[in-house]
Structure formats: C-alpha cells, structure tokens
Amino acid sequence: GKELIAEAIHANSPRSKEAFVKVNLGGLSQSLFESEMFGHKKGAFTDAYMDRVGRFEMANKGTIFLDEIGEMPLFAQPKLLRILQEYELERVGSNKKIHLDIRVIAATNRDLGEMVAEKTFRGDLYYRINVVNLKLPPLRTRKDDIIPISENYIKKLKLKMDTPLSSISPEARQLLLDYQWPGNVRQLQNVIEYAANLCETDVLMPLPIYLAHRLAYRLTEVRKNGE
Questions:
Q1: pLDDT digits (tens, 9 = 90+) for 54-81
Q2: What is the model's pTM?
Q3: What sections of the chain are H helices per DSSP?
Q4: Largest CA distance in the chain
Q5: Which residues neighbour 114 within 8 Å (Cβ) at sequence distance 6 or greater?
Q6: CA dist., res. 47 & res. 33, Å (int)
Q7: Which one of 11, 81, 112, 128 has the fewest CB atoms closer than 10 angstroms to its CB?
Q8: In terms of C-beta density within 10 A (0-12 exposed, 13-18 middle, 19 or more buried), how is residue 56 classed?
Q9: Are the beta carbons of 183 and 172 closer than 8 angstroms?
Q10: pLDDT tens column, 185-201
C-alpha cells in the first residue's frame, strides 16, 4: 500500500518523467549500506573494481522512496540527514560533492516518535522528514480499494506469468471483501498470485481464494507464536 501511494505521488508530479527509485531499508546489510545508497569510487575498498552510482544518484531529478525507514541503522542516519539538508552527497572513497535535485518519500510501520524517545532513531532526522505526514489506513478499512487492486494485479500477472486469469467471480469478490487482510496489500497480492497459479480458467473462483486465506492465516499465527 505504501509503495502504491508513493508511486501515485510521483506519477502525478512534475517529476513523473524522471526516475522513481524504491529502496527497502530493512533489506540492506550494514556492510553494503553506504555503497548501495550513496555509491562508491573505484578502489574505495577491496571489491570496488569500478565506480558505482548509488540509489540517490539514480533518483536524481526524480523521486526516491525509502521504505521501512525505521529500520535504517543509526550510523547511516547522519548521512541521510546531510543529504536532506544540503541536497548533496559524496560517494564512498571520494570527496567530490554531487548535487541532488530529488524528492524523498519515506514510509514506516513503526512509531518514529517512540523510537526517538528510545534513542533508536535520531530526533533531528525525524523532524527533517516529518514535513507532510500521511497516515495510510489498513486495507480492511478501505473495502472500495480491494477489487481495483486485485484486478490491477491480475493484469500484471498476465504479463508476468501468462496466466489465463482475467476476471474475478462474484463469489470470489465477496470472499475478498469479507476478509480482514492483516497483511494489507502485500497479503492481497500474495493471495491473487497464489490463486493465479492454481487457476485453470480465466475466472478467479472461490476455492483457491479460500485456501490462500487459510494459508495466510496459518502463516500469521506461526509468526505470532514464534513457531
């Protein structure tokens, strides 16, 4: 859901023809973080065989979407703060300043205010990124979005998987609308993809949807209980 909103903001802005670069900060290892985000100069470290453009440079003139910013390591937060204040960066191993013209959209499912109080997130960075604050309600409270999101994802799957699936039966629609979606849009996409893999016709039927719901529920319970 957060990514869709970020893409919509980019697509409806004057930067829409420029790059939209998305980064899951929770998925980056600490050892590669600076190189991945800020780039590096050839010879900056052992495996730096050539210059590398970081994610911020890739997004120059466009938009960078920093997902799960609450997972960003403390050591890297001052570097991001500098970029947001000065709109310039230096690649690892270089002292050349690179000017940036960039929009930054950050998202998190954590309470950054609490993290600031616990000193696990820098207060100055929090107040720098907290300019326009949008709270995205959970999917279960946005029933009108469920079917359009599902239909759009089916179109993407047809191109990706060459699935025959092209529509959703009335019974399956009702199941989708009745479910509470604890995993939000990501879970909905997983359910549709699961159903597309089982579907032998062009219509999404209730059975695979129901099975996917039960599977998703079981996975949620397993994670909750730490099994």
A1: 888 899 999 999 998 998 888 888 888 9
A2: 0.69
A3: 2-11, 33-38, 55-58, 77-86, 112-117, 123-129, 143-161, 170-178, 184-198, 206-225
A4: 61
A5: none
A6: 14
A7: 11
A8: buried
A9: no
A10: 888 888 888 888 877 78
